[in-house]
User: Fold this.
Amino acid sequence: YRSFKLFMDICVRCGACADKCHYFIGSGDPKNMPVLRAELIRSVYRKYFTIGGKLFGKLAGARELTYDVLKEIWYYLYQCSECRRCSVFCP
Assistant:
């Protein structure tokens, strides 16, 4: 879908959402920042749906969907309560 492709490329990774996230503030884990949570999904997206990811792989920031990647996605995405504060403060 076109809207999904747009969502995958719309974040400029500025980090303005980081200090608004309760879970990032509480844990201090860099992967708990909303921008890096979304990057987990984007890295898998790049591997299978972008030309750069298909050709260059890890050089383009792409990762294969393996069991370990799924575990990492599950661990970090389910720590989010979807309060949407990150989207409110996103420039």
